[in-house]
Amino acid sequence: MRVSRVQAEKNRQAVIDVASRLFRERGFDGIGLKDLMKGAGLTQGAFYKQFESKEDLAVQASGRAFEGATRRWSAATGESPDDPLGAVISMYLSPEHREERMDGCPIVALGSDAARQSTEVKASFEAGIRTHLELLNGMIAETDEKERDGKAMNILSTMVGALVLSRSVNDPHLSEQILHAAADSLLAAASAEDTAGGAIQ
User: Fold this and answer.
1) Is residue 71 packed enough to be buried (19+ CB in 10 Å), middle (13-18) or exposed (0-12)?
2) pLDDT at 192
3) Predicted confidence band at 32 (pLDDT cuts at 50, 70, 90)?
4) Where along the sequence lies the DNA-binding region (predicted)?
5) Domain 54-191, CATH
6) pLDDT (tens digit, 9 = 90+) per residue, 45-72?
7) Does pTM top 0.85 for this prediction?
8) At the N or C end, where does the chain have fewer CB atoms within 10 A?
9) Per-residue pLDDT for 8 more than 90?
C-alpha cells in the first residue's frame, strides 16, 4: 500500500527520534538497521526510501539529540532564571542525568564514536558543541570575548569529562564523588564571577 507524503515524513521523523535514543544507548555501530527500523515500528525495507545511508541517519539523529539537549538546558535555566549557569551545571552533573543513557548528553554518549565517523557526522557534532558553547557564553558575564570563550570551553569540558567518568565505574559512591567534585568546583568558580541573568532562549 502506497504511503502518503505526510505519513512518509512522519515515519522519517519517527526513525530519527528512535535512532537518536538507540545510538546514544548502543553507539553508532552497536545497532543495525533492522533493529533501528523495528524500534520505529517499520520494516528495514523502508529505510532507503527515507535515508541515503546509515551515515545519513547518524547525521540526522545526532542533530536531533543535540536539539533535545538544548531543550534540557533551556528547561533547567527556565526553572532558575536568576542563576542559569548554576542550573545547567547542577542538572548536567546530577545522578539523574548520569542514568539517562538514551536521552542524556550526546557528547558523552557518542563523542568517542563520533571521532571515528565521517566528516559529515563530525560536522553535526561540531555544530552541537558550538551551540552548547554559545549558550554557556551567554551565561558568563565577561567583557573579554577570548576569556569568555575559554571559560565556556572549560565548563563544558569539565562537565562532559565528569559525566563520562561517573558512568565508567562500578562503585556508586565513587561515581557520586566524581559528579559532586566537578559540580562543586564549577559552581564555586561561577559564584566567584558575576553571571548573566536570564534563561536560554
Assistant:
1) exposed
2) 67
3) very high
4) 32-51
5) 1.10.357.10
6) 889 888 999 999 999 999 999 999 999 9
7) yes
8) N
9) no
C-alpha span between 51 and 40 (Å, rounded): 14
What cell does 165 get? Answer: 567518568
Domain boundaries, the chain: 54-191
- 185-189 contacts, C-beta under 8 A, 24 or more apart: 185/158, 186/89, 186/93, 186/155, 186/158, 186/159, 187/86, 187/89, 187/90
Cα dihedral 52, 31, 165, 195, rounded to 10, equals 40
